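WARN  no MSA supplied for this record, continuing single-sequence
INFO  ligand: NAP
INFO  echoing inputs
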Amino acid sequence: MATKAVPGAAATGEPTDVATPATAPNPLRKGLRLERIPEPCTMVIIGATGDLTERKLAPALYNLMLGGFLPPEFTVVGFARRDLSDVAFRERLHASVGDHSRNRPVKASIWASFARSVEYQRGEFHDPNAFAELTKRLARIDRDRGTAGNRLFYLAVPPVLHPEIVRQLAAAGLVASGEARDARHKGWTRVIVEKPFGSDLASARQLNREISEVFNEDQIYRIDHYLGKETVQNLAVFRFGNGLFEPIWNRRYIDSVQITVAETVGIEGRGEFYDQTGALRDIVQNHALQLLAVFAMEPPIEFQASDLRDEKLKVLRAVKPMTQREVALSTVRGQYQAGWVAGEQVSPYREEPEVAPDSQRETYAALKLAIQSWRWAGVPFYLRTGKALATRATEIAVQFKQAPLALFERAGASSLDPNVLAIRIQPDEGILLRFGAKVPGPGLQIRGVNMDFRYGSSFAVDSPDAYETLILDCMIGDASLFTRADELERAWEILDPILTAWESGEGGELHFYEAGSWGPAAADELLERDGRTWRHP
Ligand SMILES: NC(=O)c1ccc[n+]([C@@H]2O[C@H](COP(=O)([O-])OP(=O)(O)OC[C@H]3O[C@@H](n4cnc5c(N)ncnc54)[C@H](OP(=O)(O)O)[C@@H]3O)[C@@H](O)[C@H]2O)c1
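INFO  complex generated
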């Protein structure tokens, strides 16, 4: 039986034993990143005074330190435009951790040792001298702190700045992609790239081309924080670690699948960004299609990055891009109007600051997709996402086919609901199975009941934040939970025809919905036409 460290466990002080039964090999064992501590390295946060660093990266690094997952040599260099001393930068990070960490208050002893590993480099992205300074600094850190030339560059800046930054890194000799490029450089170089990855197929290809002029594909870690939420491993264990589910995971037993990413928040002051982006680009292109791919993929040969990504890509390749007519029939776009969400009044989307008063941008999207594979032919996959909806919930709901014979209806019982398996991703990660049970007493009354498993109450382990998992994975060199260029481009190939049809007005009209509802009536009609209804998590 093996005992493994898991991020999150350290925070609760719980010992975490992950039992590996002698008879059934743990499917995550091979390549399990959590069995390893990363090699000494320096993480350079490019854009270290921005919102992402404040809300996500600083807390993630502190929690990794708190959990004992970082090697003692680990060093952070913040790089940004404003003039800050090392001390002032550390104070900013300290305040960020105090405000946003899942473990609070900040422990003084842990912070003191973390702060010693933090430095700040001021610089403009267009200035080669700033990158020359950075090169010198990293060489000094390698010497003084023993970071062995291992570097992780985190591009915590809007994507429009990525090409210039990677060019500057290369020009400053900071990118070592194997011995061929720089025989003098020892150690590895990796780059984490934040979404959005382009705004359509052409721009995603362009961005991939520009980054891959400098980095090899195996050095590029495109982050989708949904995949860091334990989701992929949980789904993989559920499907491939149990004998029960895999035999029914196909068109013979499954009637349809719904993937919901529902948010209660509106656009939170990001009017300029959102009015150019919309729900399809912001959520469906990455999170929803990645969930679809993980849910529907074939068992990988091994649980490791290349096999997993190959299988996900196969699913995406089997999703047929829509014609213009199919867009009008199989998609719905919506925009929220005034309403109430959780007791708070919400203004119409068009009245948000920096949103055009006649904006056609969708804050809601629903699609019916077909996966043309042996396993999934004929099973519709309904995807929906929206802002200012009734509930915050991300889930995959599997609706099973009805029993072949309505035995109990003949005996007078009311008609039975189909079985549903709901895989909740957030909040309150868990799995719910809904089935029919006899109501106790005389007669034959049948009612739907739930079997409800929650990770939170079954395991005394506090789940790590997605950014903790993903940063650690990147340091270890495990790309399983990051998106490969071909997956990304295929996702755009699926969505480009929808975007084009919507933007030309040929893909159906924009439907309005009340904030705090479950979206436009047209989305309900999309399912009603198929004799189905949306599940409301
Ligand atoms: N914020 C989030 O929670 C979040 C979540 C998911 C994904 N993302 C993604 O993460 C990325 C970063 O977002 P963000 O919200 O953190 O951006 P941001 O707040 O605008 O921060 C940008 C950072 O880049 C620096 N910068 C900008 N132009 C520069 C230049 N010419 N030279 C040097 N430094 C420059 C800024 O430095 P100064 O401040 O010193 O000017 C700042 O540190 C985006 O791709 C975003 O989509 C963000």
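The first helix runs from residue 9 to 12.
INFO  checksum written, moving to next record
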